[in-house]
Structure formats: C-alpha cells, structure tokens
Model the fold of this input.
Amino acid sequence: MNLAQIRYFLTLAETLNFTDAARLCGVAQPTLTRAIQKLEHELGGTLVYRDGKDTRLTSLGSDVREEFAAIVGAEDRIRASVNSRISGRRERLNLGIAHSVAPAPISRFITHALGEMPMLEILLHPIDGKMGAGLLLAGTLDGVFLADKPADNPKLSVIELFSERLMLACASSHRLAKFDMVPPEEIGVESYLDRLGCDFRSQAIDYFMNAELVMRPRLQSEREDWMQQAVADGAGICLLPEFSAIVPGLALRPVSGLNLERQVSFVSVSGSGNAPALRHLRMMVGSHRWPHSAGASKQ
Done:
C-alpha cells in the first residue's frame, strides 16, 4: 500500500467514475484501475463495486475512506509544515462566500482553520452564488461557500455543512417573540420589511399568496445589516434564515405552514491534485462541528 494508491482511491470515491478519476489524477485509466485492484488485494476485500457504468463504494470502501482521508491529511500537514519551516512560505487560498450566506458559522470555522494552519492566508471574496461553480472550474477561486448545491458535476466536490429554515424575525421585545409557532394570520397585521437579496424571496411570496396574506413592504433593501437593524429596532418584521442573524436584539420563530430550508455547502474542484492547503482545509470542513437546526424551540 502506498500514498499514490490511497489518493487514487479517494479521487475515485469522490467522482465514482474511473475515467474522471484518472484524468483528475493525471494518469491513464488502466494505471488507476490497476492501483485500485492492487489496493483491494492488499486489504483483502473489494472497495469499489463495478457494474458497467454503475460504480459505487462497497461497505468496506466506505469504512476505509475516512481513514485514508486522515492519512492523506496527515501527509499534507507534514509537507506544509516542512515547507513552511524550510522556506518560510505562506500558503494562500481564495475562497468565495455567496452574498446570502451568514458570516457567523463560516467565520467561526475560518477562525479555527487559521489557528490550525499557521502558515495559511485566506482571501475572502463575496460572490453571486450562481457563479460559484464557474469561478471554481475557471481556477479563479479555490473553494466556495454556497447557499445551494450546484448542479451535479463530477469535477466538483460538495461537502454539505448545515441546513437552515426560513423563519420569522422580529425584535426580542416584539409581541410575536412570545409565540413558539407564529400563525400566518398574526403576520398579516404587521409591518413587513422586504430583504431583496433573500434566496427564498419568490417562495415566500408564494407562501403569502397561498395564505391569502397581503404583505405590502414598508421598507425594501439589499443591505442585510440595515434590514436586520431596522427589525431589531422595531420597525417591522422580516423572514430570515435561522443562522443568518448578524445584529443583536433579534428573535427568530418558526411560522406555521412555512416549510422552506436551504443547504449550505462547501464546494471545490474534486480530486487529490489540489494544493495541500486546500486538501487540508477540505478535510477540516468535513470534520468541523457545524450548527444544527433547533426545531421550534425559542432562542
């Protein structure tokens, strides 16, 4: 068993396609196939089930995948540490964050990553989430945090981080903050503040229409900080993803019949040919403790 075989397997585990995995690893497909077969022989079990175009991991393959990722991650850390010590060279990653993704969960992770990787520099770029996949494939960005997963693409690695529901946001002192579950009819009598950059905006409008609620926005803006501050100051209510509050004084409550949620993910180009810093960061993304939805409980 050697590291090349392990890297080939991890790339295949991401793509589930021998041709794509070989291309990403920079080897001929027969070379990658022989390496996987040799690895299976040495382990004494089948790692990948093959049936024509259908390729998937066996239970053994799934079991060893995490262990192999840890081995590769350890090698990457050792190489990065040695390079940093010898050359004093810092590693830089360009990461994109979709405008609609709240800073708090991502910021906590980045703070942790910077502490674990002392020679890492991160450049954060606000992006339109719809352009994320294109910026990755063009090599402009190393990784992106997106509010919704891109279309399936074997060239991309997607790590799901957390899901968050769309909830009602009001000032902590607002009368609606006393509800565990806000009835739709209670919303219709309140001043509504319209977050123009909301990913759920069209679905929220459909919800209002189906609930026969006529919501006439008193204030509209794409500036998230202004809108949330206005809500916290008591100017009205808005709808907000549950981990997206960035100002103090807000209370978030679920709304009866409003069942909308989004999945925040970290996306990068798949394969083991990425820079060691990105491979290490991706491993940390997968093992990080991300927030979980709190159900209908009050904050």
Q: What stands out?
A: The longest strand covers residues 156-171. DSSP finds ten helices and eleven strands in the chain. The radius of gyration is 23 Å. Residues 59-87 form the longest helix (29 residues).
